[in-house]
Amino acid sequence: MRFAVPTEPPSGNAWIPGSSPGMTEIWFNKPIGPMIPERQKTLIYVVTEDWYFWLHRLAIGQAALEAGYRVIVCARVQAHAEILTGLGFTVVALPWRRGGGTLRNELKSLWMLWRLFRRERPDIVHSIALKAIIYGGLMARLAGVTARVSTVAGLGYVFTSQRLKARLLRRPVLAALAVAMRGRGALVTLENPDDGERLAAGGSIRQDQVALICCCGVDTDRFAPVPEPAGVPIVAMACRLVRDKGPAVAVAAMRRLRAEGVPIRFLLAGGTDKGSADSHTEEEVRAWVAEGLVEWVGHISDVASFWQASHMAVYPSRYGEGVPKTLLEAASCARPVVTTDMPGCREALVDGVTGFLVPVDDDAAVADRLKQLAQDPALRHRMGQAARAKALAEFADARVQAGMLRVYREVMVG
Description:
The chain is of the alpha/beta class. It has two domains: 14-217 and 396-413, 3-Layer(aba) Sandwich (Rossmann fold); 234-395, Rossmann fold (3-Layer(aba) Sandwich). It is 41% helix and 17% strand. The protein is built from 14 helices and 15 strands. It has helices at residues 50-66, 81-86, 103-120, 130-142, 156-160, 164-181, 193-201, 247-260, 282-290, 303-308, 325-332, 363-374, 377-395, 397-413; strands at 14-17, 25-28, 42-49, 70-76, 90-93, 124-128, 148-152, 186-190, 210-212, 234-238, 265-269, 295-298, 312-315, 337-340, 355-358. Helix 8 (247-260) links the parallel strand 10 (234-238) and strand 11 (265-269). Helix 3 (103-120) crosses helix 4. The longest helix is centred in the C-terminal third of the chain and has 19 residues, at 377-395. It is globular and about 65 Å long. It starts with 13 loop residues before the first strand and ends with a helix.
């Protein structure tokens, strides 16, 4: 369930993606001829939130602009519309919410998407994450858009939670995804193979329409290595403070280390998420601070400096993610990571080489690995250098951008 997207074609050759059912790639040893001017192509992104596009897909969107696409971003608008508009994107505000809003707003969002697709006649619709895929994919099909890309950025709450609501939603979500992601000219990009196997088993995708590509790269120039700071070892974590991302597990690990007398500090960055029922409350986080387990810095804008001021990273997620960007940023800064053996997390590192994988919800295992890293500077350095090398080789923005632009060309070939 994978085809490799080459970063660069051999010099002097034209790369033409094959259109066979197996999505083979064909290299033709033929010089590229003169380009015939074409009308500007329109690419529409459908995402749940403007901040999500800003944090996780901006580099790919900018690469599309630079490649000559007219790019429209459809999302719930909170704080980034003006910024995105200033960068050259057209922003369309949708009234939906990630976890579901009023029926009126949900229906209005569907209507707005259908009208937009009918009016703009986009060359490509790229929907990112499950809700956007269902809404954007369905409306794009109804509007007659054949070139559609669906990016599954992790299977999330519906597929990883054991709560009754999540279990009841799985079958209808799989059915809706099957309708939204199928059809002539539709491609699906996945960030880890586990998600593909689960979706294929549920009948939502075909093997011949799948590309395995990390769509959430990292700016390896900005997130650059610097020497470790002096003083007590610092473990850092940056994420939305929702339970499934594991901040409470990290806190429990710190409680164990403090009881053992291990000298270590824990810096926690990120805010609570009022839009998620799974979010920790501000009172919970402040209680951790009062207990002396956490130094909470809240929302930060300079994430690179945050990682550079640390010695190691922790991310004990239990959430079904693609490839967490926070892990890529820490790795790019040459910081080893302790994270859980979960889809997406395990793709971001090599266990025992660039960091450590631990079982889900095992704060004792998290504490043991953090203690090992805190007490062994040579191990931190060795793992950090390996993490940086992996980030450069697999997750650098330029590589990810080139791969996604080739996916766009592939989907338009049909």
